[in-house]
Amino acid sequence: MAGESPERSEQQRSSGETSPDEVAVPEERVAVAAPDPRMAFSGARTPSGGDSGAPEDPENPEDPEGPEDPEDPEDRIAAAAPAEEPSEEKVPEREPADEPADATPTAEAPIADEPVADEPSADEPVADEPTDAAPEGPAEEPAPQDRDEPEDRDEPEAGTRESDEPEAEDSGDRTTVLRTDVARARADKPPAKPDESKADDAKPDADNSKPGTDSDKSAAGPAKPAGDEPEAVRTQALRSEFVPLRSSDDPPPAPTARPTPPPPGPPVPEADATRQQPLPPVPGQRAIDLLAQLTNKPAPPETPLRTVVRRVKIWTPLVLLLVLVFVSVQLLRPLPAPALELTASPTHVFDGGKPTIAWPDSGQAALGVEGLGSFGTSGEQKPVPIASVAKTMTAYLLLRDHPMKEGEDGKKIPVDRKAEDDAGLSAQGESTVDVKEGETLTQREALNAIMIASANNVARLVARWDSGSEEKFVEKMNATADELGMRNTTYTDPSGLLKETVSTAEDQVKLGRAAMKLPAFRESVRLPSYVDRNGKKQDNWNRLVPLFGTIGIKTGTTTAAGGNLLFAAEKEIGGTKQLIIGAVLSQHQPPIIDSVLAAAKELILSAQEALESETVIKKGTVVGVVDDGLGGRTDVVVTKDVKAVGWSGLKVRIALSEGSDGVPGEAPKGTEVGTLTVGAGQGQVKVPVALDGELVEPGSGARLARVG
């Protein structure tokens, strides 16, 4: 087109505009700068609307040599177009120092010389900007304006300062398409002369915008005074580019909304940007299909063999890992402690029938061997008065609650006035020992006075010293009887003088077994006599001591109770010392003390005669095994003959126990690892057992195979 640069002609041809022969623009017409096409979508108005346009720069007229029209075309357009309401949308302001001065170049739209009445109304849709007018994407920020401009340059409006500059710059980022009557413009004016300054305007430079240069005077019409037009409008006119106009005869195209551009991000390589990305996984989608999307390689067809191979590849590493963990845990687990187990019979029964026992003709009796069993009882086991036999419980509590070792004298017991007074009751037939108030008795002296001299006054003194009163001590006596299983026993006083203190022979044997376990008690009751603190010899009322192996325990005689005796005797047999304990009650044949001693003697002799020893297990017999806890078993044998003591028809128990150091994990053959025990109590038989083979720790196979 005449009067335009070659670049502008190229823009017309690429955008499909009419040729230069068809459109003629008068040279004297003012070329009004078209705003940025993007303003059409931001709600800003064209210069005809009066809000914000692309004002021309009076300092940079595009055609300095052309004639100036005394009337501004922009004013004519504003006068003819209906007034529009100013947009209430505020354009964000930018800091002037940070905004570039040059906005993205836009096309320049020449205004045809035609009546204003032919211009389409503001309600008519505006044609979209051609694609070539401005590239898509974020708008290029305008370069900062030259700050070397003269300070005395005319201001756009009174009272308007640099604060108006961001609005002008923002308006440069918008687009408005101006329409004119192309046919009338063609008839009025000849083709315009090429404007050599347009080539320079296509690439605006901050250095070329200085006032006074030829490029600054390329306006298409008469320049308005600087005081009538804002500086940003004039600058926008300089940066405008050619925008093709639509013919008024063509129907307006439907407005299309441009999609909001995404926020700028890091540059994406072209190969990655155009590559098809896989969709997110769909629920229920197979992993192999997802892998095919990621690798852009279709999944191979599914076959049974391929399925098996894939499963083997997936599960084999996991199985191997589990096996490795299992093996490590099994091998590092601590080994269970070896234990001895009895494989022989746990009991042994002696051959023959029941032995013959010389039971008394009257009263009641009971007989047994500690640790082996009972020979049985005679008479009716009903509660009867037991007289001084009750002192056995008093002595037992004295030593149980105030322990005393064998050979010691024990604690000091002060003598009170009552003990001294009770000593005078000997004149009434009571057994007593002379004591004086203020003196002290040792536990040993008190024990001998109770169990050998059978002193009632000392028994009551011990009760008051131990519990504070005789009544509380009696309560303790009855409580202890219940603990020992003496169900038919009742105590009413510490000495047994009262006839309400009753028991049975069977219950008294239970008490005798418990008392004979105390060393100090055994040491005292086996004495035939002792000398008290007054130098007087006190004989044991049980004259069987020390005859026939008798070692105690206590006699008791009263008119109401008759003769009573709780006794103990020993017999050595089969390398053991067996303890025989029995009781005879309610012997009323006078002299009652002699009657009861005679009856007890027969019982002791019967028991000693019934006891026998026999070999239960021979040397070298396997009686048990050492179990390592993982299936390994090593036999153990007795190191000598095992002889049990008992009587015909008696059943004895056999047990296997570990040594004091336990069972070793490894040991050679012949190592003693425990003891075989026959019977219980004082007369039990113990024989060592030893390994019948080498004892070794469990191997790796046994460790891996254990489950528990």
UniProtKB/TrEMBL annotation:
Statement: the UniProt record of this protein carries the keyword Electron transport: no
Keyword Membrane in record: no
GO molecular function, one term: serine-type D-Ala-D-Ala carboxypeptidase activity
Xref: InterPro entries: Beta-lactam/transpept-like, Peptidase_S11, Peptidase_S11_N
Region span, Disordered: 1-283, 405-436
GO biological process, one term: regulation of cell shape
Keywords assigned by UniProt, alphabetized: Carboxypeptidase, Cell shape, Cell wall biogenesis/degradation, Hydrolase, Peptidoglycan synthesis, Protease, Signal
Entry similarity comment: Belongs to the peptidase S11 family.
Binding site for substrate: K554
Domain Peptidase S11 D-alanyl-D-alanine carboxypeptidase A N-terminal stretches: 380-572
Protein name, entry field: D-alanyl-D-alanine carboxypeptidase
Naturally occurring in which organism (per UniProt): Streptomyces alkaliterrae
SUPFAM superfamilies tied to this protein: beta-lactamase/transpeptidase-like (SSF56601)
Compositional bias annotation for Low complexity: 12-23, 102-114, 132-142
Biased composition (Acidic residues): 54-74, 115-131
Biased composition (Pro residues): 250-269
Annotated active site: S388 (acyl-ester intermediate), K391 (proton acceptor), S454
Pfam family, one: Peptidase_S11
Compositional bias segments (type: Basic and acidic residues): 1-11, 88-97, 181-217, 405-421
Chain segments annotated as transmembrane: none
